[in-house]
Amino acid sequence: MAEILVVRHGQASFGADNYDELSDLGRKQGQLLGETLRAMGWQPDRAITGSLARQKQTLEEMGFSVQAEEHSGWNEYDFHDLLHQRFGGQAPDDVITDRKTHFRALRDTLAEWQDGGIQSARETWAQFTARVEAARRHAAACDAERILVVSSGGVIARLVAATLEVPDRQMITLNLQVKNTSLTRFISSKRRFFLHEFNSVPQFHDAARAELMSYS
């Protein structure tokens, strides 16, 4: 049986022109996670990221020597595109730059997307779920015992929801709970794939490090 550890990337550059770059905090989060996993005696036999810079940068900061593969199925849904398309081509500034406004709008937007709305978006909900499943199958199809994946919150939430066979709306709730550099662990065999641990942050389990935890 294989252990697949799916990590959400570190904090990205929220509100910046280029969101797809780790912030200084995001880089520190990645370093702490790598240190914590090595202290626990956990070393990956295989590593995979999506094609997004923030995912690749997180793996780099973790400091493992294994050569990473790339599979675009682990990329986040394009939330900027979804928000802009929902608002007629350009979302209001506060929807992009204000955290509370952003996440309220994102929740409603994801629900509409799941229901088949926002047809002008670059990717449909069905296409998103299909590529996440393809990424899962690709990660599980090997003889490695410890597989490290660096992905994003929406993908992790979808994978958990699909594994537990819960309604699509539950994916939205899970998505908004996923912490930066949190660990979600799956166990995989030829016949079974199940959730073992969700949204764990052992790297932040002391008072000083807890201040470094973030959700976006």
Description of the structure:
The protein is α/β, with parallel strands linked by helices and 216 residues long. It has two domains: 2-77 and 129-210, Phosphoglycerate mutase-like (Rossmann fold, 3-Layer(aba) Sandwich); 78-122, no CATH class. It is 44% helix and 16% strand. It contains nine helices and six strands. A six-stranded mixed β-sheet has the order 3-2-4-1-5-6. The chain is globular. The two termini are 33 Å apart.
Give the SSE layout.
Layout: E1 2-8, H1 24-39, E2 46-49, H2 53-62, E3 68-70, H3 79-86, H4 93-97, H5 99-114, H6 125-140, E4 146-151, H7 153-164, H8 168-175, E5 183-188, E6 193-200, H9 207-210
Parallel strand pairs: 1-4, 2-3, 2-4
Antiparallel strand pairs: 1-5, 5-6
Helix pairs in contact: 1-2, 3-5, 5-8, 7-8
Brief rundown of the structure:
It contains nine helices and six strands.
* CATH architectural category of the largest domain: 3-Layer(aba) Sandwich
How many distinct domains?
2
Q: Tell me about the biggest sheet? A: 6 strands, mixed
> How large, in whole angstroms, is the Cα Rg?
17 Å
According to CATH, the homologous superfamily of the largest domain is Phosphoglycerate mutase-like
Strand portion, in percent? 15-25%
Strand order of the largest sheet: 3-2-4-1-5-6
Distance between the termini: 33 Å
**What is the residue-mean pLDDT, rounded to a whole number?**
95
Task: State the shape.
Answer: globular
Estimate the helix proportion, in percent.
Answer: 40-55%
Uncertain segments of ≥5 residues (pLDDT<50)?
none
- The number of E-state strands comes to 6
Give the H and E element order: EHEHEHHHHEHHEEH
Q: Within the CATH hierarchy, at the fold level, what is the topology of the largest domain?
A: Rossmann fold
Number of helices: 9
Structural class: alpha/beta
CATH class of the largest domain: Alpha Beta
